[in-house]
Design a protein that fits this description.
Length: 98
């Protein structure tokens, strides 16, 4: 499985935990650049996100998740579960304050 990462055009904050989000990773595709409407997940808190037209992110609501194909929703749930396990083993370090 290939894993690619790209920097976002500008950093934004997770609307749930406030973590700085400045890169995206795509599993299984060469192009990791997100497009408006793409789903994502905050690696700090696991909340499911959606890219806005300006490539900021907003929290995915239940109505958004209900529109997803079942396989995609299951993939997101598995990613959330993996993130929760990883964050327990390796808690994210706080962002340095200047
Ligand atoms: Zn978060």
């Amino acid at each position: 499985m290939s894993r690619r990462e790209s920097m976002l055009p500008r950093a934004c904050l997770c609307p749930h935990c406030g973590a700085k989000l400045d890169a995206s990773t795509e599993l299984g595709r060469d192009d990791a650049a997100p497009s408006p409407g793409d789903y994502s997940m905050c690696l700090h808190c696991g909340v499911i996100l959606i890219y806005t037209p300006k490539l900021d992110v907003r929290r995915a609501e239940l109505d958004d998740l209900a529109k997803l194909p079942r396989e995609t929703l299951l993939l997101l749930m598995r990613a959330q579960y993996a993130q929760s396990l990883a964050s327990r083993l390796h808690p994210p370090k706080p962002e340095p304050t200047n």
